[in-house]
Amino acid sequence: MTHTYRLFGLQVLSAIELPELARHEPTGGADVTIRLAEVDEVAESDGLKVAGDELLFAVDGIARYRIASGREIVVDPAPGAPVRNVRLFLLGSAFGALLHQRGILPLHANAIDVGGKAIAFMGKSGSGKSTLAAWFHDIGYSILTDDVCAVSFDANGRPSVAPGLPRLRLWREAVEATHRDPARYERSYTSEALYEKFDIPLARIAEGEVPLVIVYVLQQGDTLDIAELTGVQAAQALFENTYRGGFLQSTGTADKHWFSITQLMRCVRVFNFVRPWSLNRLDDGSEMILNHVRTVCLVSSCQQPCA
Q1: 157 and 265: one domain?
Q2: Domain assignment of residue 296, yes or no
Q3: Is 260 found in the same domain as 209?
Q4: Is residue 89 part of a domain?
């Protein structure tokens, strides 16, 4: 039995049921197929191996994945591996490699829809991207994507964000700080080790691709501050916050990736957002960034020319 889904603007035909995704009525041929089969051993110490236009990716005790030409992911689960963990790396790292192969720019970011414009929050793991997105969701804004922000460009070079997984992944402290009960949600990763992250299904999800206009880089500091980044600083921030940037050399897409970053810089404004990272001050920082979004969009109409 096969299942049809839509993820990052791509129609996915999967032999594996993916309850994290909403089912989608098939329209034409699949962009991506996912199937179960044996995958060759991956001997390299970093868990990666290049074989022609294929990337072999292994997670110890979980599964081996073969990502081919941006069109297929073959999954070979390890004996006894929890199915939830197999799906976690399938929809994360394996799909990230596939996006690189397809020339889609994956940022390590969350994105929300503010009045038909996509606003992205980039940052390292633990920087509060998902918690900030949860705050926006809870005051009525739709989420576009969590953790992986897939950016595509139209014929005029204008960037847009396609909807990702319809959930937020939050640490226990953030679940409680946003007035949710952790007991109601499944853990993101099934393990004997203490891993207190939970998958939070979303009530409001953006339907289709949304033009990307502003990117914030989340930083920790003693005071609240927003400052624009341009030129090399903006490019470096975007490169450093590429999702699975370590795959670029393996997928042979480093040059194309840099071109996408320079193209993105022509059309969006990039800001450094510094804040004390404290759940007790979540409202202060979130309201500041919302007011900043409104100001930027009011001044520029959020329509940056793509030079």
Answers
A1: yes
A2: yes
A3: yes
A4: yes
- For residues 213-217, average pLDDT: 95
- And the tokens for 128? 């509060």
In a domain, residue 176? The reply is no
The mean pLDDT value for 106-115 works out to 94
> In the numeric block, which tokens belong to residue 198?
């939970």
Residue 76, pLDDT above cutoff 80: yes
Number of domains in the chain: 2
Q: Which domain holds residue 90?
A: 3-102
The pair of structure tokens assigned to 230 is: 């341009």
Alpha carbons 62 and 273: distance in angstroms, whole number: 36
Please name every residue paired with 296 in a beta bridge, in sequence order, or none if there are none. none
Contact 60, 72 (CB under 8 A): no
CB 207 within 8 A of CB 163: yes
User: 299: which residues sit within 8 A by CB, 6+ positions away?
Assistant: none
Q: Which pTM was predicted?
A: 0.91
- H-helix segments, the chain: 83-89, 95-102, 129-138, 172-177, 231-240, 248-251, 254-267, 282-300
Buried b (16+ CB within 10 A) or exposed e, 274-299: bbebeeeebeebbeebbebbeebbee
- 32 near 73, Cβ under 8 Å? yes
